């Protein structure tokens, strides 16, 4: 998109831009809606804990206060007494500087970010299977070249509408689309085959599909022998997953499982893409591995128009996880426990490698530890609205409230900012320059178009302002300079940006790190082979029972984004509030009609919202969108052992009609 | 000291138990009488049909057992259990000590009382095939392949249960003219009622397989199979699928309590000797024996915990029996014939379907679905989870799913969700180009393009002249 307009900025389509060819959804069209908004924060604010009143202070006062709080926390609890929480919407430059702030200036290991709740399962699986994690190892437009596209837990027609155009072009070409989702979504309406499994059973479905591919002799034995290891174990592990057993576990009829397998077996090119529906589970990374196994067994990974990819959920979901705001990583997707990586990055930062902390807690574990005896007592939050987006949110909010110091950088008074001690007003997208790495691994440049309101500062300035008060490590604030430093720090790492410059990005319409297409001849493991892992179906951590008989799943709606801190404030976007989507059978069971209020409870919390009665959802499942406060008071904080992804996508719930008095 | 666990049998229950014992502090020996590493027995009819490669059946290879330190002895037959010495004796006289013994001996096919089935030397008539093991399957497959070279090959399947129907369909799909003989009054008599059995028989006949119910095969002659009604069915092959019985001879000889199966308690231990366990088809728990894989696997999971010294108990199971046969749709949940409760039933003889839900206290406690498996996945979930349903739900579950009827779009209906454009706004445009320009409809995901093309310029159509 481009920004035009004289007095008030307007968004216009940029048709030459290769990723979306100018197509936008209403969130894109209305993205300038928060310029000049009354809700925009333009001065640092400090909250009086006794009265709850906010008062405006100068930037120096605010930063001094924050620095003093950090010193106090670290004096009492050591370097790890302060935590940093980042976001997948931050630019690469900010994500990099944030990681550097934590490790080099604060010396704390306690840094993680909300991307842990987004793509971490796919990332973990990608690293294990391919030795490398890049959401799509090919340009998104390659989707149009496949013969069967399998979307596992993706509703891209609503979550990234311009991408849905690829589905239409694929089908015009004669290709077919399969959508796997407990809800028959607008994406599923465009599918040739839509399967609605019980939430938390995508893994079993993958095992069943692979079972049938083996039975039909449809696996590519040559490819498996030449390019993978572990196939023998995987093959045995799917022997017990015949279609009728899959039916009993997944709720998908054996006939449909056979139909899917036959479709895959009979197609020259197959592409599997997973998204949050498959990944946000306590078994998320195993689920991704199971689908990767399907793509590998068909010999598809690394072929043009085939393979496996993950559809990224946040603006900079990919870059955000590459440059060091993840608890276990240093810039360039390096591991923080790798001595070579530590020495290299410490060299770029001009610090002693020994001074760098080791791996810290993952996002949810970090939040759980806040204010506890061995956890941090102060936290800095950048680009994240934890109160709305964390699982088991009531509990997490209590942890946040137990801190001695909570600092939130945002440009509106988000629900998390509202309980902070200090709120620092920062610039928003068109007011600053920075790079993002999109779902294809393509580094794109978002350039400053308008002047920010006086009083707002870039996160880069905030980070540098704190660093100068707390250490002697220099921090650049000019985005291009930060990017060049990021390039040096990432040099030689799996995500190596050292050859990318702003000029190249401008000239080439974005630059893919690692190349446009990956895995054509080799995977990123030392032996060049992909690893196949035999994974077992375990199911959701919390299963329905007599007290909580339904599955609850959560997700997005088209007009809102993430915690809604921005989109709920954009007037051009309809905000109808949350709702509970349920099937007429369940509506009849509890005696509620469309539009009437319904109360939904889990072991962790309760919320009420109007019932939306639809025939498109599984009758044993209800859906609540997560853009408003409430949904995540219900969700389960069970974590995936490998990725530490919380189980946002399924827990056990109870519904009842709300009786309105009078 | 590490306990020695000896498992007699190498079937599906045994392999599941071994999986559960990986990493446990026990020394496991599996004594399997077949020559093949444990395989997925229930898919044999699919192998016969040709839809499943035999290669895909292996559950765990010999290498897997070796890798996990489990001793797998194939082609090994146990002849005696010495409970006093805690030893088993093999057919060659070798004796193996155990601390815990697990009987996973499965079932043996019953030979129906048909004269001429077994020849004087004790072997089966050359046209006769049992169908239980991979070896049986291979033999039958070879016979079928040879027969297909001859003109109009024919087969008779004795037994109209799940396995019989699967085998009959497999043979039929292969091109063998197949007939089914069932002694009971209708097919699948132990699972479903006469109406459902009737639907199945009709389906089979439609698919070209003749069905004789209430008829017993009494004699094997050179001409074919003679029935008790005097008719003779000429045939080149006879396949025996008339059920099996728990294999309990070892347990009986060892003095363990055996009724139909080896009687076990909730720790799956023999009520006579708590060092000896039994599971799967050979075990009898609360007066029930099974014959299906899912309960055997549930038992294996419990027994693995017991053998690891953990608290675990088996309190019965819910079974779902599914027919795996091309062109025949059957699912039976629980005991659809005997379960107590209110019965909700929909029979449609015109389309050939019969579906029955047995509901007790709002829960589906059993079900039989024949000829129409719509919502089988959901009904199975509701059954397995014991979900309490509203009074109308069981009936609605058997009705066709409501389809959202395509209605004329009201003006305030949102057509383009990406840009938030209503039908009215699109109707007010004269062309698609004007609509794109004015409203941005179709420029996001593009999903509304067809509707927009239909709606543009149609505003006039909806104006009804007044007066």
Automatic annotation (TrEMBL), chain A:
Domain Molybdopterin oxidoreductase: 40-467
GO BP of this protein: respiratory electron transport chain
GO cellular component, one term: membrane
GO molecular function, one term: NADH dehydrogenase activity
Keyword Transmembrane included in the entry's annotation: no
Entry keyword set: Iron, Iron-sulfur, Metal-binding
InterPro entries on file: Asp_de-COase-like_dom_sf, MoPterin_dinucl-bd_dom, Mopterin_OxRdtase, Prok_molybdopt-oxidoreductase
Record domain Molybdopterin dinucleotide-binding: where: 550-652
Pfam family, one: Molydop_binding
Alphabetized PANTHER family for the sequence: NADH-QUINONE OXIDOREDUCTASE SUBUNIT G, RESPIRATORY NITRATE REDUCTASE
The name this protein goes by in its record: Nitrite reductase
Organism: Nocardioides glacieisoli
From TrEMBL, chain B:
Statement: the UniProt record of this protein carries the keyword Zinc-finger: no
Any one GO MF annotation of this record: oxidoreductase activity
Domain of life where this protein originates: Bacteria
InterPro entries in alphabetical order: FAD-bd_OxRdtase, FAD/NAD-bd_sf, FAD/NAD-binding_dom
FAD/NAD(P)-binding domain segment(s): 4-300
Keyword Protein transport on entry: no
Protein name: NAD(P)/FAD-dependent oxidoreductase
Native source species: Nocardioides glacieisoli
Source organism phylogeny: Bacteria, Bacillati, Actinomycetota, Actinomycetes, Propionibacteriales
């Amino acid at each position: 998109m481009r920004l035009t307009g004289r007095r008030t900025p307007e968004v216009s389509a940029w048709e030459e831009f290769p990723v979306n060819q100018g197509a936008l959804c209403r969130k894109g069209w209305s993205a300038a809606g928060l310029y000049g908004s009354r809700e925009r924060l333009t001065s640092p604010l400090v909250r009086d804990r006794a009265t709850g009143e906010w008062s405006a202070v100068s930037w120096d006062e605010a930063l001094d206060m924050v620095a003093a709080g950090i010193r106090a926390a670290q004096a009492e609890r050591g370097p790890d007494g302060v935590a940093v929480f980042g976001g997948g919407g931050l630019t690469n430059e900010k994500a990099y500087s944030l990681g550097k702030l934590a490790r080099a200036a604060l010396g704390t290991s306690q840094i993680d970010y909300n991307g842990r709740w987004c793509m971490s399962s796919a990332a973990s699986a990608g690293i294990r299977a391919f030795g490398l994690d890049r959401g799509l190892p090919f340009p998104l437009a390659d989707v149009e070249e496949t013969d069967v596209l399998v979307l596992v837990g993706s509703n891209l027609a609503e979550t990234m509408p311009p991408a849905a155009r690829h589905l239409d072009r694929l089908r015009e070409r004669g290709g077919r689309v399969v959508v796997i989702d407990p809800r028959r979504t607008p994406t599923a309406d465009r599918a040739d085959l839509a399967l609605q499994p019980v939430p938390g059973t995508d893994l079993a479905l993958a095992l069943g599909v692979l079972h049938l591919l083996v039975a039909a002799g449809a696996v590519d034995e040559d490819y498996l022998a030449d390019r993978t290891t572990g196939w023998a174990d995987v093959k045995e592990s799917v022997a017990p997953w015949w279609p009728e057993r899959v039916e009993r576990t997944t709720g998908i009829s054996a006939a449909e499982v056979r139909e899917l397998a036959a479709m895959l077996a009979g197609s020259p090119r197959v592409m599997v893409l997973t998204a949050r529906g498959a990944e946000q589970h306590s078994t998320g990374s195993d689920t991704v591995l199971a689908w990767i196994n399907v793509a590998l067994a068909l010999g598809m990974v690394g072929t043009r128009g085939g393979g496996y990819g993950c559809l990224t959920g946040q603006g900079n979901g990919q870059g955000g996880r590459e440059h060091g705001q993840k608890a276990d990583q240093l810039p360039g997707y390096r591991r923080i426990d790798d001595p070579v990586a530590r020495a290299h990055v410490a060299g770029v930062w001009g610090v002693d490698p020994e001074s760098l902390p080791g791996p810290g807690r993952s996002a949810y574990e970090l939040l759980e530890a806040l204010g506890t005896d061995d956890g941090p007592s102060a936290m800095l939050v950048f680009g994240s609205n934890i109160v709305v987006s964390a699982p088991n949110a009531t509990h997490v909010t209590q942890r946040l409230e137990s801190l001695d110091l909570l600092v939130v950088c945002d440009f509106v008074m988000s629900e998390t900012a509202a309980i902070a001690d200090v709120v620092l007003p920062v610039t928003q997208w068109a007011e600053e320059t920075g790079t993002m790495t999109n779902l294809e691994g393509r580094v794109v440049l978002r350039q400053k178009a308008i002047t920010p309101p006086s009083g707002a500062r870039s996160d880069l300035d905030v980070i540098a302002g704190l660093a100068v008060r707390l250490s002697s490590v220099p921090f650049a604030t000019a985005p291009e300079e930060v990017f060049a430093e990021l390039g040096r720090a990432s040099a030689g790492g799996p995500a190596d940006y050292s050859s990318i410059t702003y000029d190249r990005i401008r000239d080439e319409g974005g630059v893919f790190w690692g190349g446009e297409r990956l895995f054509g001849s080799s995977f990123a493991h030392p032996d060049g082979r992909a690893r196949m892992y035999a994974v077992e179906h375990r199911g959701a951590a919390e299963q329905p029972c007599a007290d909580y008989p339904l599955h609850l799943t959560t997700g997005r709606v088209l007009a809102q984004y993430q915690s809604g801190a921005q989109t709920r404030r954009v007037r051009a976007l309809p905000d109808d509030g949350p709702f509970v989507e349920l099937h007429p059978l369940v509506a009849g069971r509890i005696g509620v009609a469309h539009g009437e209020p319904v109360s939904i409870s889990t072991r962790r919390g309760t919320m009420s919202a109007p019932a939306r009665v639809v025939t498109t959802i599984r009758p044993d499942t209800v859906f609540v969108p997560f853009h408003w406060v409430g949904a995540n008071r219900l969700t389960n904080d069970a974590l995936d052992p490998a990725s530490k992804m919380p189980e946002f996508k399924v827990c056990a719930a109870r519904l009842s009609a709300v009786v309105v008095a009078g | 000291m590490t306990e020695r666990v000896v498992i007699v049998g190498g079937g599906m229950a045994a392999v599941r138990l071994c999986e559960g014992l990986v990493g446990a502090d026990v020394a496991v020996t599996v004594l399997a009488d077949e020559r093949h590493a444990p395989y997925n027995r229930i898919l044999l009819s699919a192998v016969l049909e040709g839809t499943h490669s035999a290669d895909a059946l292996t559950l765990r290879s010999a290498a897997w057992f070796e890798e996990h330190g489990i001793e797998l002895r194939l082609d090994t037959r146990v002849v005696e259990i010495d409970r006093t010495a805690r030893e088993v004796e093999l057919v060659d006289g070798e004796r193996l000590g155990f601390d815990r013994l697990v009987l996973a001996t499965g079932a043996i096919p019953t030979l129906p009382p048909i004269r001429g089935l077994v020849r004087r030397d004790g072997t089966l008539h050359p046209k006769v095939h049992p169908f239980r093991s991979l070896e049986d399957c291979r033999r039958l497959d070879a016979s079928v392949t040879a027969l297909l070279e001859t003109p109009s090959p024919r087969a008779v399947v004795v037994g109209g249960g799940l396995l019989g129907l699967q085998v009959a369909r497999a043979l039929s799909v292969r091109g063998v003219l197949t007939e089914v003989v069932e002694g009971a009054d209708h097919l699948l008599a132990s699972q479903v009622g006469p109406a459902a059995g009737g639907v199945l028989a009709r389906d089979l006949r439609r698919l070209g397989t003749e069905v004789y119910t209430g008829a017993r095969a009494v004699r094997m002659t050179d001409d074919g199979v003679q029935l008790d009604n005097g008719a003779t069915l000429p045939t080149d092959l006879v396949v025996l699928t008339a059920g099996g019985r728990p294999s309990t001879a070892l347990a009986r000889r060892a003095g363990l309590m055996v009724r139909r199966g080896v009687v076990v308690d909730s720790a799956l231990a023999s009520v006579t000797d708590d060092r000896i366990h039994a599971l799967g088809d050979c075990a009898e728990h609360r007066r029930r024996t099974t014959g299906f894989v899912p309960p055997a696997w549930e038992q294996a999971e419990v027994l693995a915990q017991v053998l690891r010294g953990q608290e675990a108990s088996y309190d019965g199971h819910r079974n779902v029996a599914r027919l795996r046969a091309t062109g025949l749709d059957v699912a039976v949940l629980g005991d659809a014939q005997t379960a107590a409760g209110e019965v909700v039933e929909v029979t449609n003889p015109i389309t050939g379907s019969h579906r029955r839900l047995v509901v007790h206290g709002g829960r589906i406690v059993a079900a039989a679905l024949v000829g129409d498996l719509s919502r089988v996945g959901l009904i199975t979930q509701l059954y397995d989870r014991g979900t309490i349903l509203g009074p109308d739900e069981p009936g609605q579950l058997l009705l066709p799913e409501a389809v959202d009827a395509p209605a004329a779009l009201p003006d305030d209906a949102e057509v383009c969700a990406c840009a938030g454009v209503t039908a009215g706004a699109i109707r007010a445009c004269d062309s698609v180009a004007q609509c794109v320009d004015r409203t941005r409809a179709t420029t996001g995901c593009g999903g509304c393009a067809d509707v927009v093309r239909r709606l543009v310029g149609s505003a006039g159509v909806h104006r009804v002249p007044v007066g």
